[in-house]
Amino acid sequence: MTDIVTFGETMLRLSPPRGERLERTRTLDVHPGGAESNVAVTASRLGADAVWLSKLPDSPLGRRVVSELRSHGVRTGVAWADPEATRMGTYYVEHGGAPRGTNVVYDRSDAAVTTATPSELPGGAVRNADLFYTSGITPALSPTLAETTASLLETATAADTTTAFDLNYRSKLWTPEEAGETYRSLLPDVDVLVGAERDIATCLGREGDPADVARDLAEEYGFETVVVTLSSEGSLAYHDGELHEQGVYESETFDAIGTGDAFVGGFLAKRLDGGEVPESLAYGAAAASLKRTVDGDLAVVTAAEVDAVVEEDAGGISR
Amino acid sequence: MTDIVTFGETMLRLSPPRGERLERTRTLDVHPGGAESNVAVTASRLGADAVWLSKLPDSPLGRRVVSELRSHGVRTGVAWADPEATRMGTYYVEHGGAPRGTNVVYDRSDAAVTTATPSELPGGAVRNADLFYTSGITPALSPTLAETTASLLETATAADTTTAFDLNYRSKLWTPEEAGETYRSLLPDVDVLVGAERDIATCLGREGDPADVARDLAEEYGFETVVVTLSSEGSLAYHDGELHEQGVYESETFDAIGTGDAFVGGFLAKRLDGGEVPESLAYGAAAASLKRTVDGDLAVVTAAEVDAVVEEDAGGISR
Amino acid sequence: MTDIVTFGETMLRLSPPRGERLERTRTLDVHPGGAESNVAVTASRLGADAVWLSKLPDSPLGRRVVSELRSHGVRTGVAWADPEATRMGTYYVEHGGAPRGTNVVYDRSDAAVTTATPSELPGGAVRNADLFYTSGITPALSPTLAETTASLLETATAADTTTAFDLNYRSKLWTPEEAGETYRSLLPDVDVLVGAERDIATCLGREGDPADVARDLAEEYGFETVVVTLSSEGSLAYHDGELHEQGVYESETFDAIGTGDAFVGGFLAKRLDGGEVPESLAYGAAAASLKRTVDGDLAVVTAAEVDAVVEEDAGGISR
Amino acid sequence: MTDIVTFGETMLRLSPPRGERLERTRTLDVHPGGAESNVAVTASRLGADAVWLSKLPDSPLGRRVVSELRSHGVRTGVAWADPEATRMGTYYVEHGGAPRGTNVVYDRSDAAVTTATPSELPGGAVRNADLFYTSGITPALSPTLAETTASLLETATAADTTTAFDLNYRSKLWTPEEAGETYRSLLPDVDVLVGAERDIATCLGREGDPADVARDLAEEYGFETVVVTLSSEGSLAYHDGELHEQGVYESETFDAIGTGDAFVGGFLAKRLDGGEVPESLAYGAAAASLKRTVDGDLAVVTAAEVDAVVEEDAGGISR
Amino acid sequence: MTDIVTFGETMLRLSPPRGERLERTRTLDVHPGGAESNVAVTASRLGADAVWLSKLPDSPLGRRVVSELRSHGVRTGVAWADPEATRMGTYYVEHGGAPRGTNVVYDRSDAAVTTATPSELPGGAVRNADLFYTSGITPALSPTLAETTASLLETATAADTTTAFDLNYRSKLWTPEEAGETYRSLLPDVDVLVGAERDIATCLGREGDPADVARDLAEEYGFETVVVTLSSEGSLAYHDGELHEQGVYESETFDAIGTGDAFVGGFLAKRLDGGEVPESLAYGAAAASLKRTVDGDLAVVTAAEVDAVVEEDAGGISR
Amino acid sequence: MTDIVTFGETMLRLSPPRGERLERTRTLDVHPGGAESNVAVTASRLGADAVWLSKLPDSPLGRRVVSELRSHGVRTGVAWADPEATRMGTYYVEHGGAPRGTNVVYDRSDAAVTTATPSELPGGAVRNADLFYTSGITPALSPTLAETTASLLETATAADTTTAFDLNYRSKLWTPEEAGETYRSLLPDVDVLVGAERDIATCLGREGDPADVARDLAEEYGFETVVVTLSSEGSLAYHDGELHEQGVYESETFDAIGTGDAFVGGFLAKRLDGGEVPESLAYGAAAASLKRTVDGDLAVVTAAEVDAVVEEDAGGISR
């Protein structure tokens, strides 16, 4: 029995050394990253039995991703594609301090995953899992993937597998209107909704006090849980008629990419382990704060470390 | 007045450290490379006024290429494409000793250059040059590029700009039949043909003694010069009714990629500088042998170094 | 059902950059390595379902090993030890060209694995496997491990799991007499014996024509197969009354450590996949030749690459 | 027609990795740097057609500089010197946090540039430019260079090329008295004066409210523009009877060296592009803030990035 | 005549690059470190004639330590041990920002030094020195070392060599009770006691106002000087009936390990050079603040730099 | 009592990574190197008590040299020069395979050492040593050094310190005539002459059979020993009326620079340790062959390694 199955794209992230610019760098660091595999890695490292589903080119680049995920204990269910006919998605990241900021150049078009159909993927894995997770990036990548995402959510729902979905709106992939329409079509099959306050406003048109937004969404769609992330303000969850708030744990940021996925992975891992919503929020927040101290997209942390942050900083609620 | 104008794709080459495999590398070295810019760089470094024409995404990755070519003195005439709508071509190279060999994974589909049309490129640069060079890779990349290649060769011919063309057959891009058909349509506008013995046989169907092949091609198409490269056997040229042979200069190979382009660049640079065919062949062979000692696709060599190889090794003809 | 289970120590190998000496290096490369995990990795990469059993300190160093093995698809059955009470075995390797050679400094005393008892290890994994493999290094590490090795071989034999054993004599761990005595006590439970010609002579006292030695050993102990490795001369196998010889495939050596384990892993993987002994020897020899081109102890190769070496170099038999 | 021509020394800057000291480092990073080429690079990257004039040894070290400047689009007019008879100027930089600070060791004596005479340099480039820039470092390097600097300023003035001069006092090269005397002899040929408040006080003896100092200098010497830089307080300009103030844009500093030159290059580039003085000051301040996020002396930034800083931080004036 | 002799263990510290974790690092930086050699290096660099005594395996790893210490001018008196029978102590350090912190994994058990006896060490060096220094780590490493430490302190006392001792309590090596008992047995032979406020409380049971604690200890044991370090609060010393306080000098911390030893080394070096206690405290505090800007355990600083910190920041006392 | 004192210049050698060219490298490796310190390091590492005399700028660069030499056990007698008034000698090395070869760019003019006078150096060290060594590079660096070299040789001779001198002709420093004249003036104070066959021919005009040349020189100047090095042919010595020949030990060359100095250092160390001339030649040849496997100018080898080469390869004489 699997605890958590995730489905989505994982790319190779290529980044120059600190202080160097993409325009003139001679070396690039390689880190696999993708919202759904980031969540699977966090969950696996924190004790869950995690599986990641996707489609990759049958090439050293595709194997690079599987190799990395496996190293964190994640099992992989990959449809291997013809490497001559498809590509490996990549993205370039340039870390820069203010006022330059972090710059991202995506090169993910026509990645193998954009052609993934339900029949290529192990549907049984979804049916036999406690929880299925994907994010709003996946259906944005291609019409095929939009259908596959819907199909997998339906499969999960039909099998009584809990479903979790993070809006993860990406403005470079589609418009708020397109995203909102797709989200609304998928949400009926979602049990646990995670969304950034901004994404909820932009794509679903819900603005105002985030607690009200969470409750309204929960009631409208019948979500088991709604988690709203508030950036540096932390997060809140509406669950079973109750509202729970969680602040962020302070950290020295080495690499901020993947922080949100570490939060989701930590939250879900604790929920799957029987944790209540408040402690799961704290666990997610702690995983997120630790992630920021580590290079790459992945939360290379241990359960003991996450526990320590939660315990030592029990008063870490910032609002 | 420009000495040499070249047109073609330049990619970012990404390669792991020696002894490391793509599947598990954590760093990649970055080297821009492409047949036509390799030729332009060699020619520029050896004294020619060289211009490279192409189309690139208007992104740090596109600027990476221009930055590198400019550093070798090459001027660039680039049509800048929308970075959201096109890509930067890349390829991955894994250097391995025998029996593993060097492994290449191309990721060049839909590169910005595949949409380049004559009207986007500075045709005046072609008309005002002594020589225009492109290779058989360029028309293979897209139907648009096949038309653009033909158009630029016509422009050059109409302006009495000498044209040089290297067959450079790439089996991952098209079939021998497709290549042969395109080659035959372009060759009437070519003055100097360069071709590997194997490519001539595979695509043009000419086999047998390479000297005979060279003469027959020259006579059939009216080429000013035909250069046939023979791998470790060196090269030969048929020019003005005469045959000239050239061996290879021995070298310790650090990186073999780009050797052929260094040969062509050296040969053309010497010809543009007034050299006779035999000494130009020697010059090209020397540039090629030096290239092999340097990391990356580019022949980072000086005219003095090339001269020294030719002089010290005057007897380097291996056949 | 598992194809192959291996048991033994894996250490962290620490090595300075090429040309640098341990005495003054400021950086060390880290590569996990150990005969039995090397074999498991090779087998896993070549298609076998492989499990590695051992005991490690519950520390980042222990997790470093598991992380690496998992990345190659190997599943791990690890008894986690108190990191305050035990150590991670390490060894330092300095690569040097002739006449300096490769220098190894072991720092493996009191490693966690030396305390591993059968009850800590998943005996079921051994019983449910097609093949169980360990080497003569394991019983040399401690009296406890000598008993555990014997116990696991007995468990396998009782469960009709085929057993394979590589003598792997290490003079820094014990004397030839000690090794020979232990070997002789274990061999009755061994089905497939692998041994270097030199180790067989040194520890078992069998010298002379290696074909005779193999046959005599097979007959005396009733081995299903005896494989004798002959260093640069290749290898030979005595199986089912027949003798088979295999040469080495030439390679440019980047890192020779782990070559023997790659050979064993390739041989066993092919045998488990239904290969006959001759083709399995060839497969092992090809895996070994490819291993030499890669940094570290592990054979980071693919089945396609091994196949290619065997096919392209069918005449690679050197004797 | 060239927009801007600069003249001065460029050195190779050699620096150990962060946290390491010169006394024990085993690697040095190489970055070409010099006030006048820094200004040319900034201006070129921000859209100006820029030329840098200097004298270098005809060696790989001299070519290292030209290669780097060309990569940023700067054209170079270099007098090549006998590498046996002259040197490449170098300097060593050790970055250290407080209380250690950044430590610089100059090794620039007898650099090739110290022998540069007007007849070796392309005077036509100066005459055909819109603006000629040099700094007070150049005449400090040798008596010959003092004369050459004066001559080039005269050439520019005679040709109605606007001249810009940054005092750039270096106490390791000469005394305040020597510098002041030379400055005063050159200023009659200067149109745009740039000076740090401290340098103006030390070498020209003008202290007090910087606005008054600027106006007084402008009136005394008839400068078109006087820009006074005030370190963390920003800058001010007196131009056409009006005073303009500009604050600094906050940045996370990765490497502060070259900040002042980025400011001057940005200011001049915007002026050459038709910008008024206030917006040119903002542009310079934005270029300077971005420079601080990048390793090396050069402002590897784009016009779009500079625009973004100016627009997003319109209220960034700190006084 | 030697100024200072120290005795203790030096280990090889192995640490991954910043942002990387031990669990997945592929490279480790190597820095020798140990309290007593850290003190010797600081003292030597600041002008003292320093000797370090210890026992090391006769291997490249042992020579690595001697090589590094010698490079800082420290002379070494090493008993060389059989590298097959003993080990080199190592420890792994992972630098992480909050909330992760710095993580240390010790691997020092059975190091060669734990077997060091007085007869193996050059007692004459102790007798001929002005000062002998060791710390509470040394007797904690083995019963043999506890005896050797006592013996060397007695030797020093008998020879009128001043003795200095830093409590340096390490909870991973022994309990507070064990430490306290050993400390109390050694203190009668100590002239200068250094102790962290926390160690004094934990092991010697002295709590309360640190000034009172220092005076009480001095009077009870007849110490010439008692220095109490107060972490970010600085330090204080009781000497000759007077109390002296010293704050910390602010610094940007690159690597905090070794800060305390740099303080002790600076303090002792200045005392040996004739400095009064207050200026010696300032000198130590300055050395400590500079140490924090440098990678590794050692204070790679110069006397001029320490002087500059003291002079420029004379008001750096924080309480 | 010192075994060997050497005097000469040590430079910082700066070299790009393999496969990279000086013209475009972004990092340089730093290795101190100089004939006389190379000899001192080899001798020290092989057991001699060695001292190196020189003059260096009192800067981190000067300390870089002392730090490195001390790490190999060499004591240093350095006259520290004003770092503002003098320089650190440097040289750039580019390793390239054939046909490019190794390229050296010297930047050593006006180094601090060129001003060294006898009164600045510890003459007592020379008088109290068994052997004084310098090479023909030293007097070539400046007229002052020529005088100082002569003076130190006289000092040694007067004190009955054996003197050894290696011609080490450098064509970039002086002409054969200048060198020959200086050599002839110094040789009367030399006891052990070392010279490459080519240098002896070029500067001293002695050609022909090297055995004859050695004997003739020994008889003419009354040398105790004459060693002639013959490049890949090995070396020979004429001593006490007898001729001894020594071949080279084969090695894989990682870095050939410093091979000759390793030979001299090994030869002198063995002679100082009481070795006869033939075994000292073998010892030198072995040290030289090991040196070639190590990066940098220094022979980072141990006596045990040198012994092993001599013993295992007793038949290594190539002529």
TrEMBL record, chains A, B, C, D, E, F:
GO molecular function list: kinase activity
Domain Carbohydrate kinase PfkB: from-to ranges: 1-296
SUPFAM superfamilies associated with the record: Ribokinase-like
Transmembrane segments: none
Keywords: Kinase, Transferase
Keyword set includes Kinase: yes
Keyword Transferase set for record: yes
Family statement drawn from the similarity comment of this UniProt entry: Belongs to the carbohydrate kinase PfkB family.
NCBIfam families on file: KDG_KDGal_kin_Halo
Protein name (record): Sugar kinase
Organism name: Halogeometricum luteum
